[in-house]
Write a structure and sequence with these properties.
Layout (H helix, E strand, L loop, with lengths): L1 H16 L3 H7 L2 H16 L4 H29 L3 H12 L5 H16 L3 H8 L12 H30 L1 H17 L11 H25 L3 H11 L9 H11 L3 E2 L2 E3 L2 E3 L3 E2 L8 H27 L1
Antiparallel strand pairs: 1-4, 2-3
Helix pairs in contact: 1-5, 1-8, 1-13, 3-4, 3-9, 4-9, 6-7, 6-8, 6-13, 7-8, 8-9, 8-10, 8-12, 8-13, 9-10, 10-11, 10-12, 10-13, 11-12
């Protein structure tokens, strides 16, 4: 009960305040603290033959997770019982839940896109995706933002809440450490493929169930439950990621649009398969519909956490 209430409190704080810029300027953010450790380890240890980089990458993963979990476990053990402990736990979980930030970033794409300002929409979408936005038309921008919204609903909100509700502060901090490592060092290129392999496999593991729950949530809150489920179960296994395809394909089915497909990274075209192939490309108004689905899923998360607390 306490863990679920902590996560519900953290979700409420994030909804109300996000992570204020003044607070960030004053103390930073747990993810940036972890990022500094990951960057330092990578700079010192990611060298030598492949087997050595596999070993030092695994060591880095262990160190980063230990540094995140150790203090969280110690603090949780010292929390007082009752509402005081829940409030403190909620405050400590708050910065690791990115609900408001994700919404605001996608709104920053949706507004200029709806107003016909493609240049500003491209600039805004470049803040949330890694692909080159320079040649994106309106449909490509809407597609990229919708995919990011779907995937990050799982990675940025559902998965942290899941592990936090299950294991408390150590759970949410361990998840965030793994997910941050995945975003920094788990790239499929010569520099990171070996060093980041442990981080990548851990991220696949901890996101396995949350990604599928997120896909089901998108389907359940949509007006096209059957279609969303059909597209999700049919197309999610086609995705290059074992997890991201579930929320993305459910979103595609729920909206009746196609997602994924070919995209450009650093001048190279990645020929990804379509999700919900044969459907039309998303248009600016579809991005607004995606945001509506997102808000409904966030409401569902709140209800689920409240239900767990009552149990």
């Amino acid at each position: 009960m306490t863990f679920a209430l902590m996560m519900l409190g953290g979700l409420a704080l994030d909804l109300a305040f996000g992570w204020p810029g003044r607070l960030y300027a004053l103390v930073g953010h747990p993810v940036t603290w972890l990022a500094r450790v990951i960057s330092a380890c990578e700079g010192r240890l990611n060298r030598g033959p492949r087997q050595r980089r596999l070993s030092t990458g695994a060591l880095t993963a262990f160190v980063v997770i230990a540094l995140a979990v150790g203090p969280a476990w110690a603090v949780q053990g010292m929390l007082p019982g009752g509402w005081i402990g829940v409030v403190i736990g909620s405050v400590l979980a708050w910065p690791l839940i990115a609900m408001r930030s994700m919404h605001d970033h996608v709104v920053a794409v949706a507004r200029p896109l709806a107003g016909g300002d493609l240049t500003e929409a491209r600039r805004a979408v470049s803040m949330i995706v890694g692909r080159n936005p320079d040649r994106m038309d309106s449909a490509a921008v809407a597609r990229a933002a919708t995919e990011s919204l779907a995937e990050n609903t799982s990675d940025g909100i559902v998965a942290p809440l899941f592990w936090g509700a299950l294991l408390g502060l150590p759970g949410i901090y361990a998840y965030k450490a793994i997910n941050t490592m995945d975003s920094m060092i788990a790239h499929r290129n010569d520099r990171y493929e070996a060093f980041g392999k442990t981080a990548a496999r851990l991220d696949d593991l901890v996101n396995w169930l949350p990604a599928r729950l997120t896909g089901l949530a998108f389907a359940c809150v949509s007006r096209h439950l059957r279609r969303a489920l059909l597209v999700m179960f049919r197309d999610a296994p086609k995705h290059r990621s074992p997890n991201a395809g579930w929320p993305e394909s459910a979103m595609a089915g729920a909206l009746g649009v196609r997602l994924s497909g070919p995209r450009m990274y650093d001048g190279d075209v990645a020929h990804e398969p379509w999700l919900n192939e044969g459907a039309p490309d998303p248009q600016p108004h579809d991005l607004q519909r995606a945001l509506s689905l997102y808000r409904r899923v966030m409401g569902l998360c709140g209800v689920a956490l409240a239900g767990l607390a009552l149990l």
